[in-house]
Amino acid sequence: MALRHVMAKKYRSVIIVAQSILIALLLCILAIPRFSGRKSESYHDVEHKLIRRDVRPLDVHPFENACNFPILEDEDLSLKSTIRHRKDSSCPLKYPLQVVHRYIDGSFLINSSLSDASFSCSVQVLNGALRPHAAIAMMSEPTQLPVDSHFTVNEDNFLISCSDGKNGSGHNRVSKTMIQELFSRAYMGVFDSTSRSQFARHMPKSRQLMAEMGFVTLLGYNKVGDNSAPNLSPILAEPYKENEDYDLLDTTGDIALNKFLPSRKKIDPDTIDFIWKKMEKKGCETFFNDDVMHTSRGLFHYTDKHFLNGFKIKPTDHYYRPYYAHLYKKLRNLWKLCWDGRLMSEEFMMPWFIALQRLGRSIRVKWWKFSKSANKCFFSFNFLTSPSHDNPNNLESVDDGLYTRLQALNNSGSLSNTMLIIMGDHGQRMHFSQMKFAGRIEERQPLMSMLFPKGFKDRYQTEFENLLTNVNRLTSNVDIHETLLDIIDNRFGKTRPEGRGRSLFTPIPTSRTCTEAWIPKNFCLCQYRVTVEEREKYNQTSDALVSALRDHLRAYSCLNANSLSCSENHTLFQPHQSVRMGMRTKANWTEKMARTIPSKAFFAQTHCEIRSSSDILITLLVRSRVDLAGLKHSIAYSPMIVKAEGKCANGKKCLIMGGSLVKSDWQRQHVYLVQYPRCRTIPNLSPWSLKLETWLRMAGIPFTNINNDFTKFSAKGQVPFVEVNGRQIGDSNFIIETVKEEFKVDMEPADALGQSHTRAYSALAEEHLTWVMFAIRGKTGYPFLFSDDGWGRYFGTGLRRFFTQLVHKIGIWKLVTCRANAQGMGRHSLGILTGASIIDELYDIAKEDLKAISAFLGDKQYFEGDRPTTLDATMFGHLAGLVYMSAPNDILLNSVKDTYPNLGQFVERIKEKYWPDWEETCSTMDMNVHLKRDISDGWSTKVDAIGEIHELGVMETLNFKHIEYDTQPVNLLNLTDENGRKLLALNPAKRVPVLIHGERVLTESLAIIEYLEENFDGPKLLPADSYARAQSRAIALHIACGIQPVQNIRVTRKVKELYGQGSEKAWAKYWVHLGLKELEGMVSKTAGDYCVGNSVSIADTCVPSIVFKGQAWGVDVTEFPTLLRVEKNIEQLEPFIAALPSEQPDAPKQ
Fold first, then answer.
1. Structure confidence by residue, pLDDT tens digits, 1105-1116
2. Which range, 11-15, 249-253, 266-270, 663-667, has the best average confidence (pLDDT)?
3. Pfam families, from UniProt (predicted)?
4. Which is nearest to 60 in space by CA: 657, 511, 673, 717?
5. CA gap 921, 937 in Å, rounded
6. Which of 48, 359, 461, 608 has the fewest CB atoms found within 10 Å of its own CB?
7. What is the pLDDT of residues 555-589, one digit of tens each?
8. CB 388 within 8 A of CB 194
9. How far is 403 from 737, CA to CA, in rounded Å?
10. What residues have CB less than 8 Å from 1043, skipping those under 6 apart?
């Protein structure tokens, strides 16, 4: 009995313990999503699924761009009648007896057993084909070849002939000598007249394999010239010397075609500054394989109006023109699909791959290193013209050959040290399909697809992120040139000289225009809204669109396709008239632009709503290709998610990216920094959050912090992240690079040594020291994290707090341990030999890092001297945690205070200068104390008389910069009241506004705005660029000094006094109309979204009031379309709306 009682008690104890464990596990399961950010439905997966499969799932979308470039289906409706798919690519044998066999590696075997008769074979080397005899290949004396044994021919161009003494046949063979100790660097394969869509429909096997291999294909790539030479030379060469005399812009204000292919002077190909010449100087081996298609042609031979007839000196180490000159002479310059049992394209692709495969196999080094023994690299350019030049359908004959060779290269590891580009020079120009609606577009959208070595994205993470983002940006040929120069000159992490284009490894803004990308208007695919007349033909109904879109979205199980609804309001777009006309030059431009060209189809844009399978409402921006009647919609690219319901139920994250943002009502040129909640002793526990906020303060960039509440994460699960200009960006280094580009901020050292310091010491802090600290804290429990001074208070009270903290401790411990171990921290220990613990070793490692950082800082104010750089923000973010989050006797804290005091002083110095609100931030936990700086007693005016108006400019500036202020109204028609007398005392000129800042009194609106600009943080209204700054001031001064004074109250009163009732109105109307006309002329040359470019400037603070004045005096302002467009954009900004007279406290009710 006693035994049973004891056992029963034990069983009950076990059951109670088990129940407790189960309850704890249940609570853990409920609490884990709060920490991990996981959810039952992966919202960013929804966005990623809404992207076409052949494009990588990126955190950006092509619909974000200011340039609305068209995206076509692979087989557009307008091209259906022109597309032919080949069923068989085999070729009949002219000579069935094939005794010479060539293997895929380029070696040969002559098999005597295949012939009953005796025969012999010989090889002749082909040379020549240089100016002045560029069409003629010279042939050497024959050399006998071995029979029944493998051999290679160590020449580029040669002819193998076999004869039984009675008759013979010759076959051109192209081989490549095996060079053992080379480094293959860059390889380009170009298909003539091949658009991205054309490649997709006619090369399906290759396209699929390329996607699997990781090729990056540019979606917004736009050609810059008509035919091959003006499109490939901006990629392969620096600008021609012959076009230096031409202006960049032509008489129409557009990019001059002569900047790519000058017409006044013939170009000497030998003098062109090709990329391969730069590589030859570095000791590289070079390769130029140009399928000429006709003995009189060649990439830099044609036409004779532009080029001298060919190269006089062999341009590269390996040059294949002699082969093509001999072949096309035999063919009588008539291309054939087949040649003696073989596809011609197979012959032409052979030299592309033999050298690459052999070089790749013979070297096993990382792509960014040279072979130690030879110190050489390799550049290969290959241009396959004949299959696709005249007929786009013939491209399909190349698919099997390209697929087989890419597969062999991929499987052999030959691409481990190579950048590989597969591209088109332009789309189809010769075939009648180019006259179709989609043909005009495809002609201007060539294929551009690139593969980088696997090690690239790990070594250059920021550059690779930029590359993936730029897939969806407007790009052109000049950008590819800059990208190649980055690789050739190893410009990663360095200041790049200004070139024609932008490297794909740097951020390309969504605001980019064709002019900025060097794309002439007749080739530019940025679309325009259709005219009113054309729109009247369109049947505006959502039924057809909903049907097509619903079918498109049914594949996504995360969406409820039946819940789809779309707006009836469609905005219609189409390419520029010169594009729709297929203009290749600008001859008779004015006359042709005056013609009425009927539309063939449109691109429609509208907003739709759909619910996810968990009933979350999602708003989509949809673009479709639609016929003229509006009855047939096709969805070529999945919609962009522009909005999702705010705070979703059950703590789930809202849909992020693709346009769905945490801050849906965002302002332009304003950064929204999403970071963890505040703490008591340091603004943020995350060193990367502290780094970013400090950098934004240093750079003077306007920003607002957003608390992530442990639930808001980027699409990649990252915190911190930012949202800027409708785009979401993660990773602190990538954020800084992108924001620098968007805001034109330069905080980096100018010299290469300083840039190297930044890269090296940033890596030391972020990739080493911080993870040593995390490893130490992970192994010591780090109680601060869950204390009330840390994040403890965010986890509730009582049992809930206990279990929530337990789950978070486990999760964070695992995260920190895994990441620290991945960095190599904590895996090694000398304790077996020295008796030291792992913790001791980690402290020693951290102290060595601090020693190195301290030595570099020395007695300098900042790490790079007397001005702050990004490195200072990085170091502060990672060192501040040691000072403000450590236990009182922490070893590393003592090191910073005592052993390396300059580091502690640096932290205090940065805190004092850039964090004056530190204590208030930590005590209040307010995310945005920095936005609450005050200016008192601001003055403005509101009057009912027509002669004066509320001074918008100063108030807009105060609002833009988030400066708190008070206003005191004054009636300029009656200055006898208290405020009037006060104004007279402050400004005897009796003018407003007047600004009082402390003891300082300022008058004149432009002077006040510049004072605010120089003394307060927030958005910059004076552009960083000196020319843009001068333009902004010129426009503001024209308004303030040229228009405003002639119609103010004093002047109009005097005119009325001298010339009678009504004269003042005629006077004011005349001068304001003249001033606005002049202003329209100024702004039309500088405007983007705003007066000067796409950022708000001091000029924009003056525009709304002067347009209003014009209307008040009876001026027909519709004469000034640019001004009205700019004014409309300004009026949508919250700072402007808040400055309106109707929004002021003393505004009349009616």
1. 888 888 888 898
2. 266-270
3. DUF229, GST_C_6, GST_N_3, GST_N_4
4. 657
5. 26
6. 461
7. 666 678 889 999 988 899 999 999 999 999 999 99
8. yes
9. 37
10. 1071, 1072, 1075, 1076, 1079, 1106, 1109
Least confident range from 206-210, 759-763, 784-788: namely 784-788
Contact between residue 219 and residue 508 where contact means Cβ atoms under 8 Å apart: no
- CB-based contact 673:693 (threshold 8 Å): yes
Nearest-angstrom CA–CA distance, 332 and 353? 27
Return the SS3 of 838: helix
φ, ψ at 532 (rounded to 5°):
-60, -40
Q: What is the dihedral of CA 1090, 1095, 1100, 1101, to 10 degrees?
A: 150
Q: Judging by beta carbons within 10 Å of its beta carbon (0-12, 13-18, 19+), is residue 41 exposed, middle or buried?
A: middle
pTM, two decimals, is: 0.54
- Mapped onto helix, strand or coil, the DSSP state of residue 911 is helix
pLDDT tens-digit profile of 369-379?
222 323 357 88
Q: Which two tokens stand for residue 1020?
A: 């910059």
Amino acid of residue 1048: N
Exposure on the CB side of residue 763, measured as CA atoms within 13 A: 11
| Nearest residue to 990 (alpha-carbon basis) of 1049, 1064, 1054 | 1049
Give phi and psi for 637, each to the nearest 5.
-140, 135
Give the mean pLDDT of 3-30: 44
Of 360, 289, 344, 346, which Cα lies nearest the Cα of 322? 289
Q: How far is CA 618 from CA 658, 849, 1053, in A?
A: 12, 48, 57
- Burial of 989 per CB tally in 10 Å (0-12, 13-18, 19+): exposed
Query: Tokens in use for 210?
Result: 């390329």
446 backbone dihedrals φ, ψ, rounded to 5°: -70, 160
pLDDT tops 50 at residue 367? no
Structure tokens at 43: 């919202």
Number of C-beta neighbours around residue 334 at 10 A: 8
Calculate the CA dihedral of residues 180, 186, 192, 195 and round it to 10 degrees: 140
Inter-residue contact 765 to 907 (CB < 8 Å): no
- pLDDT, tens digit (0-9, with 9 covering 90-100), for 612-670: 776 788 889 999 999 988 888 999 998 988 877 643 322 222 233 333 467 766 777 88
> Which contacts (CB < 8 Å, 24+ apart) does range 31-34 have?
31/803, 31/804, 31/807, 31/808, 32/807, 32/811, 33/651, 34/651, 34/710, 34/711, 34/804
Q: How many CA atoms lie within 13 A of 1122 on its CB side?
A: 18
CA 276, 277, 279, 282: dihedral to nearest 10 degrees? Answer: 170
Q: What is the DSSP letter of 1043?
A: I
Residues 291-332 have pLDDT tens digits of 988 888 889 888 888 899 899 999 999 999 998 999 888 888
Residue 611 structure tokens: 């619910």
d(CA 1050, CA 1052): 6
Top pLDDT among 959 and 368 is at 959
Query: Would you say residue 1052 has pLDDT above 80?
Result: yes
Q: Give the whole-angstrom CA distance, residue 1096 versus residue 1089.
A: 8
521: exposed, middle or buried (Cβ count in 10 Å: 0-12, 13-18, 19+): buried
Q: Which of 36-50, 88-102, 238-252, 705-719 has the lowest mean pLDDT?
A: 36-50
Whether the Cβ atoms of residue 320 and residue 350 lie closer than 8 Å to each other: no
Alpha carbon distance 222, 241 (integer Å): 24
Q: Which residues contact 881 (CB under 8 A, 6 or more apart)?
A: 682, 685, 687, 690, 773
Closest CA to 175 of 188, 157, 189, 160: 157
